[in-house]
Design a protein that fits this description.
Elements lengths: L1 E5 L3 H15 L5 E5 L2 H10 L4 E4 L2 E2 L2 E2 H8 L5 E6 L5 H7 L3 E4 L4 H12 L11 E6 L2 E6 L3 E7 L2 E6 L4 E4 L3 H7 L4 E5 L2 E4 L3 E7 L3 E6 L4 E4 L4 H8 L1
Parallel strand pairs: 1-2, 1-3, 3-6, 6-7
Antiparallel strand pairs: 4-5, 8-9, 10-11, 10-14, 11-12, 13-14, 15-16, 16-17
Helix pairs in contact: 1-5
C-alpha cells in the first residue's frame, strides 16, 4: 500500500507515520508526508497513491477543498481531523472513514483495515461521487446512479438521464463507498437494486438483470442466487 499523510503538525504527522508502519507492516510499500496544501495537491497529481490520510486544517486553509479533488482520485481517503463538525460532510463526499483527533492506534487500525479490505464498506454513507471534468471536479449525486460499468482501471457511472461519467476509482473501490443498495452482479457491473425490474434466466445458465429503463445487464453465474434473494 502506498500512503500519503497530509498533516501540518509535524508531531502528529510523525505519529501517524509510525502507527501506519506498525499497523500495516509488510503491506506498506511507501509512505510520504506533506504539510502544505499546494505540495499535497502536487504530490497527488504526480504520484500514484492507494491511500490518503488527510487533515482538514492545513495552516488555516480548508482541507475540504483538497478533499473534493482527492475523492475523485483512484485512491481512498481517510480524514484524520479534530474538525468533527465536518464528518458528515466528508462522508457525503465519499471518504472511507473519519478518524477524530485525538486518535488511538486501535481507531486508526480500524480505518486502515477498511482501506486494505476490498470487501469493507465505508463507515458512513456517501451522497456524492466526485468526478474530474475538463480540469475541474464535479459532484454526481449517488441517487442519480443506476449502475456502474467497469472500464479497466476506471469505472463509468451511468445515470438515470442516460449520461455517463468516467470515475478514476475501480469497481472494487467504488463498491466500498456506495451505500448497501448497490451490489455487484458481475465482474464488470455494480447495480442499484431499486433500478432492477426483473431477473431473466436462459438455457446454459445465462442470467440477466433487466432494469426499469429497459437496459439489460449480465449477471455472473455465482451471483445470481444472492441477487435473487436480495430482490425477494
Amino acid at each position: 500500500m502506498r500512503v500519503l499523510i497530509v498533516e501540518d503538525e509535524p508531531l502528529i504527522a510523525q505519529r501517524l507515520e509510525r502507527m501506519c508502519r506498525e499497523i500495516l507492516g509488510d503491506r506498506l510499500e511507501t509512505i510520504r508526508m506533506s504539510g502544505m496544501f499546494a505540495d499535497a495537491q502536487a504530490r497527488l497529481d504526480e504520484s500514484p497513491f492507494d491511500l490518503l490520510l488527510l487533515d482538514l486544517n492545513l495552516h488555516g486553509r480548508d482541507g475540504i477543498e483538497l478533499l473534493r479533488a482527492s475523492v475523485a482520485g483512484s485512491f481512498h481517503t481517510i480524514v484524520v481531523s479534530a474538525n468533527t463538525d465536518q464528518a458528515l460532510r466528508a462522508f457525503e463526499y465519499g471518504v472511507l472513514d473519519f478518524v477524530p483527533k485525538p486518535f488511538t492506534k486501535e481507531r486508526l487500525a480500524q480505518a486502515l483495515q477498511r482501506a486494505a479490505d476490498s470487501e469493507g464498506r465505508a463507515a458512513g454513507a456517501a451522497k456524492y461521487l466526485a468526478v474530474r471534468k475538463h480540469g475541474r471536479v464535479e459532484l454526481v449525486t449517488i441517487n442519480d446512479i443506476l449502475y456502474v460499468e467497469g472500464a479497466g482501471a476506471y469505472a463509468e457511472l451511468v445515470l438515470a438521464d442516460g449520461r455517463r461519467e468516467l470515475h478514476d476509482k475501480t469497481l472494487e473501490k467504488l463498491l466500498s463507498l456506495l451505500p448497501p443498495g448497490f451490489v455487484r452482479i458481475h465482474k464488470s457491473y455494480l447495480v442499484k437494486l431499486s433500478a432492477v425490474k426483473q431477473l431473466n434466466a436462459s438455457e446454459g445458465s445465462h442470467y440477466e438483470a433487466e432494469l426499469n429503463n429497459g437496459v439489460v445487464l449480465p449477471i455472473g453465474r455465482a451471483r445470481y442466487k444472492e441477487l435473487r434473494r436480495s430482490l425477494s
